[in-house]
């Protein structure tokens, strides 16, 4: 059975898409939360600076510069959390520092909220106002604590996101593995609908989901197919028996009539009639064999390991003697130890049909070659006969089709190659006519190697 690559599996793609969606959702939520918290932090810093500024202005209105300076010193002496400390600067009209922990005016305009750098390189949110007599007051507050909290939130989102993605991936992989096994049992049953695989399908029949429904329909269809194939096989066997038996009886009566024929002319007529009957029997058997092979195409039941090398060597030994008598050169090149699964009698008929075809259409003195290559394996039967006309190459494997010209002169029912192709298909093989400059060359190879070949 053809194995689906892991990356090509629809379940793997579903898991990948789920992980991608979860990752995107986590990133989007993290970005939105981070942006919202950052905006909230800015608003809180501005509110804190404005509240601090309002308190200091009240102190200035109540007691003037001295009261304001005293209040600033008190604020600076308060212990505040690290990363959230306030900073102040009160300057006189001439720019001289009156109070505060900042030494130089940062050069900002009054009335606006802005970020200014501290001597250590960090930034704080600050606002400045003008006081009477040219004095100016600056209030600032650090935001390092908020940035630290924001970073912690970001780390929490990363860790939580990784956990969610990992959980989705593990759960999806487990679920995908179970679904893949269920679909694999369906594919295995279609590939080989034997009782064991159909029993495996029955385990999933009661599942109340889409694959369970597919399993039920597949099991029912395969069971119907098996019944139809069995009925077709029984019908063919019955037809073969019902038609072959009376024909054989007629052949026996003709043989007795020949022995008691009154003259040679009557005997010859009976001999000709007996030959026609044998031709009808052979045609009938070929048609039944073709139908039988096509009905069992893809069904591994009845297939057993066959030593193809030994089988072809035995067939070649039989043809070697007749080749000497007919004046043909017979070349044999068989790789040892080649084994395939099949029905030995059918494979034997496949090879003999190809060899009969080659010897029939090759004149005395010509060459017939049979070659078996282990890689594949690939069987080739070639001859130096007249070949197959171009206009017949696409039709040569059809029933009752005989090539024109030299091929048609030898008679025959036109079923040999059709039967050979049906047997090849029954065994998962491809029989094809290869292009040659001289004669005909028939090749048999597994279906899976056709493109590579």
From TrEMBL:
<keyword id="KW-0472">Membrane</keyword>
<keyword id="KW-0808">Transferase</keyword>
<dbReference type="InterPro" id="IPR003594">
    <property type="entry name" value="HATPase_dom"/>
</dbReference>
<dbReference type="InterPro" id="IPR050428">
    <property type="entry name" value="TCS_sensor_his_kinase"/>
</dbReference>
<feature type="domain" description="Histidine kinase">
    <location>
        <begin position="238"/>
        <end position="450"/>
    </location>
</feature>
<dbReference type="InterPro" id="IPR004358">
    <property type="entry name" value="Sig_transdc_His_kin-like_C"/>
</dbReference>
<keyword id="KW-1133">Transmembrane helix</keyword>
<dbReference type="Pfam" id="PF02518">
    <property type="entry name" value="HATPase_c"/>
</dbReference>
<dbReference type="InterPro" id="IPR036890">
    <property type="entry name" value="HATPase_C_sf"/>
</dbReference>
<keyword id="KW-0597">Phosphoprotein</keyword>
<dbReference type="InterPro" id="IPR036097">
    <property type="entry name" value="HisK_dim/P_sf"/>
</dbReference>
<keyword id="KW-0812">Transmembrane</keyword>
<dbReference type="InterPro" id="IPR005467">
    <property type="entry name" value="His_kinase_dom"/>
</dbReference>
<dbReference type="GO" id="GO:0005886">
    <property type="term" value="C:plasma membrane"/>
</dbReference>
<keyword id="KW-0418">Kinase</keyword>
<feature type="transmembrane region" description="Helical">
    <location>
        <begin position="153"/>
        <end position="172"/>
    </location>
</feature>
<dbReference type="GO" id="GO:0000155">
    <property type="term" value="F:phosphorelay sensor kinase activity"/>
</dbReference>
<feature type="transmembrane region" description="Helical">
    <location>
        <begin position="14"/>
        <end position="35"/>
    </location>
</feature>
<protein>
    <recommendedName>
        <fullName>histidine kinase</fullName>
        <ecNumber>2.7.13.3</ecNumber>
    </recommendedName>
</protein>
């Amino acid at each position: 059975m053809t194995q689906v690559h892991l990356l090509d599996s629809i379940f793997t793609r579903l898991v990948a898409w789920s992980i991608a969606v979860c990752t995107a959702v986590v990133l989007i939520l993290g970005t939105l939360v981070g942006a919202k918290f950052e905006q909230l932090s800015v608003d809180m810093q501005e509110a804190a600076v404005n509240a601090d500024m309002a308190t200091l202005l009240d102190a200035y209105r109540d007691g003037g510069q001295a009261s304001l300076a005293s209040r600033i010193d008190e604020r600076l002496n308060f212990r505040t959390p690290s990363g959230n400390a306030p900073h102040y600067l009160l300057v006189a009209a001439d720019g001289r520092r009156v109070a505060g922990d900042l030494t130089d005016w940062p050069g900002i305009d009054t009335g606006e909220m802005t970020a200014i750098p501290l001597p250590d390189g960090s930034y704080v949110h600050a606002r400045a106002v003008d006081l009477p007599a040219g004095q100016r007051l600056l209030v600032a507050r650090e935001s390092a604590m908020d940035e630290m909290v924001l970073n912690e939130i970001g780390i929490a989102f990363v860790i939580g996101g990784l956990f969610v993605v990992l959980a989705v991936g593990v759960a999806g992989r487990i679920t995908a593995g179970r679904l893949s096994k269920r679909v694999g049992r369906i594919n295995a049953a279609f590939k080989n609908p034997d009782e064991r695989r159909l029993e495996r399908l029955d385990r999933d029949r009661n599942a109340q989901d889409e694959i369970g429904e597919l399993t039920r329909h597949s099991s029912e269809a395969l069971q119907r197919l098996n019944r139809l194939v069995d009925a077709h096989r029984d019908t063919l066997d019955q037809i073969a028996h019902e038609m072959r038996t009376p024909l054989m009886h007629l052949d026996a009566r003709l043989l007795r009539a020949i022995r008691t024929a009154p003259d040679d002319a009557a005997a010859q007529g009976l001999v000709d009639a007996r030959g026609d009957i044998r031709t009808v029997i052979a045609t009938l058997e070929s048609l039944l064999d073709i139908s039988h092979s096509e009905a069992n195409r893809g069904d591994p039941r009845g297939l057993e390991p066959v030593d193809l090398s030994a089988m072809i060597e035995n067939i070649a030994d039989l043809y070697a003697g007749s080749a000497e008598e007919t004046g043909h050169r017979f070349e044999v090149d068989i790789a040892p130890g080649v084994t395939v699964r099949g029905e030995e009698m059918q494979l034997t008929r496949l090879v003999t049909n190809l060899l009969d075809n080659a010897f029939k259409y090759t004149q005395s003195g010509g060459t017939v070659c049979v070659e078996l290559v282990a890689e594949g394996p690939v069987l080739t039967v070639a001859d130096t006969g007249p070949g197959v006309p171009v206009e017949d190459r696409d039709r040569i494997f059809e029933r009752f089709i005989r090539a024109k010209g030299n091929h048609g002169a030898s008679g025959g029912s036109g079923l040999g190659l059709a039967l050979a192709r049906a047997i090849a298909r029954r065994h998962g093989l491809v029989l094809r006519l290869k292009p040659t400059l001289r004669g005909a060359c028939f090749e048999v190879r597994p279906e899976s190697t056709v493109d590579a070949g």
